[in-house]
């Protein structure tokens, strides 16, 4: 069903071919030599035992891939670059890249193309238009869960429901790859139809942070010393000026943190602080393994090919890859979560006693494994007016003063949309 709907969508959204990628040379002309795409034609222009049951071999699929299909790749790091190479060699010529390296999560919206005509428009709207009017498939090769969730939320916000029924032409498939050292995963998401990133949020463990008391007074590891300098010493001493925040890519900054961490480590007789480790801790680097990136990128590019050509059934829907010791891989079908705060269309219930404080609600939003918000801001409607209950900068512990069943709208960096909750008082 999905595939025939997707084909219909392709017909509806014939996009003008724009610039050619560099694979075709920089003179702007295509340089298809004879038989260049023969390897693809074998998959697309004749039938085979693994072909999608509804697929009819033709020359159209290849033309669509070469001329029309537009792909947005998010992330141009280790995984992203591998993906770009695979996609280009698979015949895709309309590839846009949003590089996350220069991105601060709060700036995610700004990474999309903004033009003079967009001035004054909400940035999330501009990003939505940009994606919606242009792309057939989105591929994520990111190392940030927040950025992934934001993209997931963006695609969910583009879905069109008519009388509660999802319009399939509004679906943009998301292929998501992720690696961490020797482990990786690839998954296929049809927003609104199959499990989304937030449906399976429990799979992502929260980032490990060291307890503040350990960092401040009982360091045992070199990392504790570096964290001490990063979190406590930098804001106190402001070594490069009052409003200069620590930049992991600035060698002078890292050098300063490194020297101070050495002093701290000497105080507690801790060894192992190096410049490299300092940079690793400051930038939260998990060592990349090229072979894992290569395997995951290959899996993702294959899924893009399958979906763009409609010739094969896509991965259903989550592949796990592990080459820590030998090679271990399997796939399973991640299921949609009925009350997913991102894709369920139904406000989730928040259970609190009438005497709870707002701080408890905020703690729940950030600490719950299924929500993992970063800096939630809550608004609600009172007497027909929008009222902000909490801004991250104001920390006032006061009683809720809200009614049972009250709807709360929560904004957070993990999503471009506000998330709705219903307050349910417990006795
Ligand atoms: Zn979901």
From TrEMBL:
A GO term for molecular function: NEDD8 activating enzyme activity
* InterPro entries on file: E2-binding (IPR014929), NEDD8-ac_enz1_catalyticsu_C (IPR037078), ThiF/MoeB/HesA (IPR045886), ThiF_NAD_FAD-bd (IPR000594), Ub_act_enz_dom_a_sf (IPR023318), Uba3_N (IPR030468), Ubiquitin-activating_enz (IPR035985), UBQ-activ_enz_E1_Cys_AS (IPR033127)
The organism that produces this protein has a lineage beginning with: Eukaryota, Metazoa, Chordata, Craniata, Vertebrata
Q: Which CDD domains match?
A: Uba3_RUB
Q: In which pathway does it act?
A: Protein modification; protein neddylation
Q: What is this protein called?
A: NEDD8-activating enzyme E1 catalytic subunit
- The record's EC number reads 6.2.1.64
Would you kindly state one Gene Ontology biological process term found in this protein's UniProt entry? Answer: protein neddylation
Active-site residues (renumbered): 213 (glycyl thioester intermediate)
Q: What organism, scientifically named, is this protein from?
A: Neolamprologus brichardi (Fairy cichlid)
- Domain E2 binding as annotated: residue spans: 350-426
Record's family? Belongs to the ubiquitin-activating E1 family. UBA3 subfamily.
Its keywords, alphabetically, are: ATP-binding, Ligase, Nucleotide-binding, Ubl conjugation pathway
Instruction: From the UniProt record, list the reaction(s) this protein catalyses.
Output: ATP + [NEDD8 protein] + [E1 NEDD8-activating enzyme]-L-cysteine = AMP + diphosphate + [E1 NEDD8-activating enzyme]-S-[NEDD8 protein]-yl-L-cysteine
Keyword Nucleotide-binding present in the record's keywords: the answer is yes
List the GO terms this entry assigns under cellular component, sorted alphabetically. Answer: cytoplasm; nucleus
